[in-house]
What does this fold into?
Amino acid sequence: WACGALFNLTTLPQLADAVAEAGAVPLLVSNIRSTDDGRIATWSAGILNHITKFSGEHGAAVVEEDGLDVLIALAVQEFEEEQDMSKYSQECLQNLAGRDKAWRRQIIDKGGGEAVNA
It folds into this structure.
C-alpha cells in the first residue's frame, strides 16, 4: 500500500519533487524490474509518470537507472489485469521525450517510438 500512498502524494507537483529528491526513482525502477505483482509495477510506473510530469529535472534519474528499458517494455505490452500499467508507462516516456531531445532519441532507438508518438 506504500506505493498507492506515494502515487496519491505525487499527484501534487511539490510532493512529486520531494519524493524524487528523497531518492525514490531508483527504488521505483527496481520495483518495476523485479516484481511479479502487476499492482506494484503499475503504481511504480504511475509515480514515475507524476515525477517526470511535475519535476522534469528528475527525469535524468529515470534515464540513469536504465528506467527507459523497463518503461518501454511496459508501454508496448497490453495487460488485461493492469491496464493502467501501459498508460502510465507511455505517459512517463512522453514526458521524458518532451523534455530532452536526446532522451527522445534514446527512447525511439530502444523501441519505444510507438509510445512517444502515441
